[in-house]
Amino acid sequence: DTEVTQTPKHLVMGMTNKKSLKCEQHMGHRAMYWYKQKAKKPPELMFVYSYEKLSINESVPSRFSPECPNSSLLNLHLHALQPEDSALYLCASSQVSGTPEEKLFFGSGTQLSVL
Amino acid sequence: GQQVMQIPQYQHVQEGEDFTTYCNSSTTLSNIQWYKQRPGGHPVFLIQLVKSGEVKKQKRLTFQFGEAKKNSSLHITATQTTDVGTYFCAGPRNTDKLIFGTGTRLQVFP
User: Fold this and answer.
1) Which one of A29, B10, B68, B79 is at 20 to 30 Å from A62 when CA atoms are compared?
2) How many of the other CB atoms lie within 10 Å of CB of A111?
3) Which candidate from A43, A56, A105 shows the least CB-CB separation from B96?
4) How many C-beta neighbours within 10 Å does residue B101 have?
5) Pairs of residues, one from chain A and one from chain B, whose beta carbons lie less than 8 Å apart
6) Residues of chain B whose pLDDT is less than 50?
7) pLDDT tens by residue, A59-100
8) First and final CA of chain A: distance in angstroms?
9) Which of B23, B19, B2 is nearest to B95 (CA)?
10) DSSP A85
């Protein structure tokens, strides 16, 4: 199984809502990532978890809250988002420790719209 | 800060023509990765280059890593409509993060 599964595929939320994005992989990978991608732009790193511990937070606003319940799961909790947070949110995993030498396996993403 | 730029930003070609995208870093890279993202899809890993001057081929795709390890290129021979998408290079920033280049969007007309 070489898949990274993300749910939901699409999400529309108001600025006062609380929602969560979910990501799952069963490749035995020990590093998991959240990326944000705006249309026609490259993916931008948000968070890295290595061995279930948060290793990198790219100065992401606190309205985004990541969680790694176990080595296969990664969540992104959303609260009080702004319209400019509308984007494709991509989860990725890599084999060992989250170093930039490792290739990334991406999920199909959650297209988020904040109204 | 460190930047990874790609040119061109966008290119459209007739099916059967060749295509090249160039990736340039402001700093030396320990390695460079290439990803392809189809329209409406997600990035998919293509290849990783590690050695100075390295050249790797995957069927019609040829990847090169510059001698100074600050630039790379992807060349597609005889493009097909299945090659449509955005091609990103990606390299390490400092020692801990993978930074994606600005991307080149390829359109192939039949």
Assistant:
1) A29
2) 16
3) A56
4) 26
5) 56
6) none
7) 999 999 999 999 999 999 999 999 999 999 999 999 877 677
8) 36
9) B2
10) G
Strands A87-94 and A110-114 turn out to be: antiparallel
Cα–Cα separations (whole angstroms), residue A14 to A9, A38, A112, B23: 17, 19, 11, 39
pLDDT at B1: 64
* Residue B71: both structure tokens together: 């630039």
Q: Is residue A2 over pLDDT 70?
A: no
The pLDDT of residue B92 is 86
B40 contacts: CB under 8 Å, gap ≥ 6: none
At B98 the pLDDT is 87
Nearest-angstrom CA–CA distance, A18 and A33: 21
Spell out which residues of chain A touch residue B31, defining contact as CB-CB under 8 Å: 100-101
Report the alpha-carbon distance of residue B52 to residue B74 in Å, rounded: 15
Tokens of A5: 């599964």
